[in-house]
Each structure stands twice: as C-alpha cells, then as structure tokens.
Design goal:
By secondary structure, the protein is α+β, with helices and mostly antiparallel strands. It has a single domain, classed as Nucleoside diphosphate kinase-like domain (Alpha-Beta Plaits), CATH 3.30.70.141. It is built from 7 helices and 4 strands; from the N terminus they run βααβααβααβα. A 4-stranded antiparallel beta sheet has the order 2-3-1-4. The protein is globular. The two termini are about 20 Å apart. The protein binds ribavirin triphosphate and magnesium ion. The site of ribavirin triphosphate has 10 residues, from strand 4. Its cofactor is Mg(2+).
C-alpha cells in the first residue's frame, strides 16, 4: 500500500447545498486526512486552466461556467491509496450510474453538476495539487 495525496474539489452545487461538512466526514471516516484546504471562487481563466485537458470536449464551456458559478472548496487528501479510495467515495461521474452510498449518488444532480472532483491518477494528482497549492501550504502530519 502506498501513502498518496490527491486533489479534492467540492464543487459549487455541493457548497450551495451546505454539505461541506458531510463530504469532509466521508473522507475522514474512510481514513483520508485533509492536509491542505481553501475556499475560493474560480475565475474563468483558473477554471479553463484546471480543465485544460477537456478543452476540445463539447461540454467544456458548460463545465467552466458551472465551476465558476459559485465558491468551491479545494483540498489535498492524504492516505493509503488516496487517489483510488477518493474516486470510490465519489462514485461514477454520472450520478445515475453512481453506487448507493457514494457522494455523487447522494449529492449530485446530473453529470454536469456532480458535486465533487477527484484526481484520476497519481500523476494528475501531483499536477492538480500544484495548480492550487504551494508546497508550504500542504501541512505534514506532526503529531
Ligand atoms: P472530475 O474530473 O470532476 O472528478 O470527474 P471525472 O474524472 O469523473 O470526469 P471527467 O471525465 O474528468 O470530466 C470532468 C467533468 O466534466 C463534466 N462532464 N460532463 N456532459 C458530459 O458528457 C460530461 N462528461 C464529463 C463532469 O462534471 C465531470 O466531472
Ligand atoms: Mg476527471
């Protein structure tokens, strides 16, 4: 088992629903530790940069519009197999396909407004963490 870090975003729909604490509770219950966190309201440029890999996809404009529609909570989660574990807690991208008990089954409305984001691999996690956090903003466990 590997100690990993992954990037988590609580998207504007979930922040608007007032369920930040409920989502954080799922992470902590699953053994993931929050080692960095900030609330922010993305600019169009920040959202486009974050989702640059999707820039040619038909849903890109709607995705950027949604991600800039309100504040989000961006966090770094640390734990054993954190990338995959976090994806399992989130559930499928489309909430209609998300397993019962996953965040998207419980909180997402549609594939476009699907409550949470999580890095999909260790490599993308490193890039996405660096997109939002300086090294000194990530707090190593000291006790
Ligand atoms: P995320 O990046 O947000 O964790 O979601 P994901 O890996 O499960 O999905 P991804 O393929 O990376 O897509 C990023 C976000 O774009 C929206 N999307 N819409 N209408 C569509 O077909 C479609 N496909 C993707 C979703 O909001 C998805 O989370
Ligand atoms: Mg993705």
């Amino acid at each position: 088992m590997a100690l990993e870090r992954t990037l988590s975003i609580i998207k504007p729909d979930a922040v608007a629903k007032n369920v930040i604490g409920g989502i954080y509770n799922r992470f902590e219950t699953a053994g993931l530790r929050i080692v960095a966190a900030k609330m922010m309201h993305l600019s169009k440029e920040q959202a486009e940069g974050f989702y640059a890999e999707h820039s040619e996809r038909p849903f890109f404009g709607a995705l950027v519009e949604f991600m800039t529609s309100g504040p989000i909570v961006v966090s770094v989660l640390e734990g054993e197999n954190a990338v995959l574990r976090h994806r399992e807690i989130m559930g499928a991208t489309n909430p209609a396909e998300a397993l019962a008990g996953t965040l998207r089954a419980d909180y997402a409305v549609s594939i476009d407004e699907n409550a949470v984001h999580g890095s999909d691999a260790v490599e993308s996690a490193a890039r996405e963490i660096a997109y939002f956090f300086a090294d000194e903003e990530i707090c190593a466990r000291t006790r």
